[in-house]
Amino acid sequence: MQITSKFTVAVHILTCIDVFGGQMRVTSDFLSGSTGVNAVIVRNVLGQLRNAGIVETRQGSGGAHLAKALDEITLYDIYKAVDCIDDEGLFHFHENPNVDCPVGRNIHKAMDGRLKAAQEALENELKSTTLAQVVADTRKIIYGE
Amino acid sequence: MQITSKFTVAVHILTCIDVFGGQMRVTSDFLSGSTGVNAVIVRNVLGQLRNAGIVETRQGSGGAHLAKALDEITLYDIYKAVDCIDDEGLFHFHENPNVDCPVGRNIHKAMDGRLKAAQEALENELKSTTLAQVVADTRKIIYGE
DNA sequence: AAAGTTGTAACTAATTTTGTTTCAACTTTC
DNA sequence: GAAAGTTGAAACAAAATTAGTTACAACTTT
In degrees rounded to 5, what are phi and psi of residue A73? Predict the structure, then answer.
């Protein structure tokens, strides 16, 4: 089980928009070239980021732009934007426990809070890191200290 | 994206073994009835739990038993036993980033540590809760305070 | 020996994820 | 205002993953 690659692709895309945005038009085609992901998928991801208010794109003109400062975008914002985890939560309960069994009837409730806490631990960690940090690290690796 | 239901099924199974183990033989068939999961899947899960040293089962005789005390089994042990997350980690990187692009070449490394930290936050939370707690909560709901 | 059980392999079905094709709508430039 | 290049989105296809099923050998107990 893995979280959809759309998440890391989205981070990649946003990093490209910041790094290359000053010099050129960052189109879905260019981003497809850098990420290795199909251009339509890139446009889908950009659409989700746009709906979340993270980027701005326009039909025709081409080129995506950040709609927020880098340090105002957390990894959690991106994770939510691309819908990594649905409303059911990170953990998956089997659909048909036997309600005639006292354990089957109650185990969901007994586990739920603890599993939510685990998911929140993950999400809080993502909330604590911003795109600014990731981009800074990327630039460091590219251009040196 | 959700973590395989084998995880919550495994917790369900282990809870049943503890709750019903005194009174009856807890077979894969019985567990299939309580969980609503196919008996072969139950046996697969039991096999993984056995490999991890969490339960004991034997061909022929039937009935699974815990191999450890409830408070020595954490949710993390179960999560590892049923292989929720493979060696690649929780987050999934796309396979074909463009190595000719400075971002494509380096973004993986730039993100990796932070994503590992998020995964560890999740796993540490799972390490902090034991099956004893889950079973106690389940018993409370079943039998009251 | 018979009945019931586990362990495992091979196969099927369902679901999810990713990729592809296609084209209308829009913007810019010539 | 026509041409070129781009986004947005729908419909479809392919690949991968997850869960279920069938079948049967190996084992234990009665």
Answer: -110, 115
CB-based contacts of B101: which residues, under 8 Å, 6+ apart? A16, A33, A34
- In this predicted model, what pLDDT tens digit does every residue of B12-63 receive, in sequence order? 999 999 999 989 999 999 999 999 999 999 999 999 999 999 999 999 888 8
- Contact call for A103 and B141, based on CB within 8 A: no
Residue B8 beta carbon within 7 A of nucleic strand D: no
Report the greatest alpha carbon distance in chain B. Answer: 66
Protein residue closest to C29, using CA and C1': A61
List, for residues A13-64, the tens digit of each pLDDT value: 999 999 999 899 999 999 999 999 999 999 999 999 999 999 999 898 888 9
Q: Is B89 helix (H, G, I), strand (E, B) or coil?
A: coil
DSSP secondary-structure letter at B55? E
Interchain proximity A107–B15, CB inside 8 Å = yes
Q: Give the burial class of B2: count Cβ atoms within 10 A of its Cβ; 0-12 exposed, 13-18 middle, 19 or more buried.
A: middle
pLDDT digits (tens, 9 = 90+) for A92-121: 998 889 999 999 999 999 999 999 999 999
Confidence (pTM): 0.91
**Protein-to-nucleotide distance from the CA of A107 to the C1' of C4, whole angstroms:** 29
Contact A121 B121 (CB under 8 A): yes
| Confidence grade of residue B145 (pLDDT, cut at 50, 70, 90) | low
Q: B35 contacts in A (CB within 8 Å)?
A: 94, 97-98, 104
CB A19 within 8 A of CB A138: yes
